[in-house]
Amino acid sequence: GVGKTTTARLIAKGINCKKNFIQGEKCNSGEYCHCEEISASRHIDVLEMDAASRTGIADIREIMDSVSYSTTSARFKIYIIDEVHMLSKSAFNGLLKTLEEPPAHVKFIFATTEVHKIPLTILSRCQRFDLKQLDETDMMSLLSKVCDNENVDIPKNILSIIGKAASGSARDGLSILDQTITLSQHDPNIDENAIREMLGLSDNSAIIELFESIVIGDTQKALDEIKLQTDRGAEPLNIISSLGEI
Predict the structure, then answer these.
(1) Nearest residue to 74 (alpha-carbon basis) of 32, 108, 111
(2) Burial letters for 62-96: b for 16+ Cβ neighbours within 10 Å, e otherwise?
(3) pTM
(4) What's 93's DSSP letter?
(5) Tens of pLDDT along the chain (246 residues)?
(6) Alpha carbon distance 4, 132 (integer Å)
(7) Do 22 and 193 touch, CB atoms closer than 8 A?
């Protein structure tokens, strides 16, 4: 949820756009441009493949057979392979020769969450870009921007809870915000406790009481507090995370 596939499409647009992205040139309205079709995943020269569902050598051989053909309309033929770590060993070996000596009109973009599963022979032939999770400031900025665009008023303290629950994933943050907006339409007086309940988070005052019980060494009270919170629907991992924040 940090934008790997979106970044891959942006690179594909940057490579194939007739205008100079880096110089800040914009596509002219009315003039044919590749960008719109790439964004909508329907450009004939930009092919996206999900390696999670197409893991075998036969799927890669299909790509290898089409690599030698020149582009239809764009400058470069681009293959975006998502979840590339899911490819089988034989599929990686089938890809290797083309990566060693790729045709001039072909570019490969790989996206993965588990780079340690990619063979070194493949990694050494790639430029690698590590995407970081969003920090709290960026997450708040993103959520606030979406709220403004959607004309909804969600208080900052609730956006902060959503941002923390998303754990750096923009996709998770937007999904939770979507739920919150739906909830706020039914209940205009939505508060922190309602959001915490929705997310399976503990009440902040209950976490402070639990923390105090741990600090003074009152084991029984601490265990009772944890039981009370889990009975109310709080996730044990979220309780530990909240304790860590304190």
Answers:
(1) 32
(2) ebeeeeeeeeeebebbbbbbbbbbbbeeebbebbe
(3) 0.69
(4) H
(5) 888 888 888 888 888 877 776 677 766 655 567 777 777 777 788 888 887 777 778 777 877 877 777 777 778 888 888 888 888 888 888 888 888 888 888 888 999 888 888 888 888 888 888 888 888 888 888 888 988 888 888 888 888 888 887 878 888 888 888 888 887 777 667 777 777 777 766 566 778 888 888 999 989 989 988 888 888 777 788 888 878 878
(6) 10
(7) no
